[in-house]
Design goal:
- The chain has about 350 residues and is an alpha/beta fold.
- About 35% of the residues lie in helices and about 15% in strands.
- It has two domains: about 5-170 and about 340-350, Rossmann fold; about 185-335, Glycogen Phosphorylase B (Rossmann fold, 3-Layer(aba) Sandwich), CATH 3.40.50.
- Helix 3 packs across helix 4 and helix 6 (about 200-205) crosses helix 11 (about 310-320).
- It is globular and about 65 Å long.
- The protein starts with a strand and ends with a helix.
């Protein structure tokens, strides 16, 4: 018998990592073979700013709100959610939002419905304002995208048997990033100086480096000018390049020495995984959730957040040629995140009891 499953998503920008993962999951489960077991549907009670990412999704329900401000979106979205919970025939509802987990559970109780609710949070539980950890208790089961988030859930008192560690899926890339003679570091992500991405730490570490090296930023953000000023204050302009935001950054990066991630926190850093999957060794902060699921001695190094000297030492080792990696092995280390392995975990999680 086909199991009916809805992914009930919050308002999304349309160009983030959550959208990418949801799209990957939806496209996988709408294949002919998967439709024999599962009927997936994506439901957007508050719509999305950009809808391009949903174009190939067959089963899609969107609440179209005209001229949506935040308050109007939430009011209309709440009414829509009530009607949805009253009418849905889903056996499982997967929610990537603690707010939706709580509201769906309350409406389920008031309307005497009996579907299961599974949380699917894509952020570290304690650092994002939109995540309310206590509301996870309204869910029946939980999907954890990193071992760090799994640990946080257990710390909240959620039974380990109710949590499935699934990570995030990654389509195997066709290309491999080749080494460079000159040391070329790469960063891909939002340009946040003191926020989540913590790029001040990166600049301060590079101020300690010596030798011939460069670092290219692929991304945009509100701190672009402040970041450039900090680089100038340390006299490092000749070492840095800003490439800007691009839809397909990994098509631009064909040769590099190392990827660098200095985040204070993550959910599951897909840019880091994208780098490793292309054979690019990486240096990453051992922040609360994500990097230690990806980085092993075969593909890179971790440093403790805030340890600027430690980060500089790792980067200097790359410059000095003291860290050598077999790029085939680096690429192979991403194998457990590829779709065939990922969806085995995902399907098993749908059967949690």
């Amino acid at each position: 018998m086909v199991k009916k499953i809805d992914i009930l998503a919050p308002h999304l920008s349309g160009n983030g990592g959550i959208e990418t993962v949801i799209r990957t999951v939806m496209l996988h489960f709408q294949t002919t073979e998967q439709q024999k077991k599962y009927a997936f549907r994506l439901v957007l009670p508050q719509g999305a700013t950009q809808m391009d990412w949903t174009e190939e999704i067959n089963e899609l329900v969107v609440n179209q709100i005209k001229n949506p401000g935040k308050i109007k979106r939430q009011l209309f979205g709440t009414w829509y959610l009530w009607q949805y919970v009253r009418q849905t025939n889903a056996e499982i509802i997967i929610c990537p939002s603690t707010r939706l987990v709580k509201m769906t559970a309350i409406f389920r109780k008031l309307l005497h419905r009996h579907f299961k609710i599974i949380s699917w949070i894509h952020f570290s539980l304690y650092q994002e304002a939109a995540v309310k950890p206590k509301d996870l208790h309204y869910a029946d089961y939980h999907l954890a995208i990193s071992s760090g988030i799994q640990k946080q859930m257990v710390e909240l008192g959620i039974p380990a048997a109710k949590i499935a560690l699934i990570y995030n899926p990654l389509t195997p890339p066709q290309e491999q990033i080749v080494p460079t003679k000159k040391t070329e570091f790469v960063y891909v992500g939002r340009l946040l100086l003191d926020g989540q991405k913590n790029l001040r730490e990166l600049v301060l570490a590079t101020a300690k480096l010596h030798g011939d090296w460069h670092l290219t930023f692929y991304g945009a953000g509100s701190d672009r000018q402040a970041l450039a000023q900090l680089i100038a204050d340390h006299g490092l302009e000749a070492h840095y390049k800003f490439y800007g935001w691009t839809q397909q950054p990994w098509r631009q990066i064909t040769a590099a020495s190392s990827f660098v991630l200095t985040s204070k926190y993550e959910g599951f850093p897909m840019a880091l995984l994208e780098a490793v999957s292309r054979g690019l060794p990486s240096i990453a902060s051992n922040c609360p959730t994500g990097p230690d699921d990806i980085i092993q001695t075969v593909n890179g190094r971790l440093y403790q957040p805030g340890d600027i000297a430690g980060l500089a030492a790792q980067m200097q080792a790359v410059i000095d040629g003291k860290l050598q990696y077999d790029r085939q092995k680096v690429q192979a280390s991403a194998r457990k995140f590829y779709p065939d392995v990922y969806f085995e975990r995902f399907e098993k999680a749908l059967e949690m009891k």
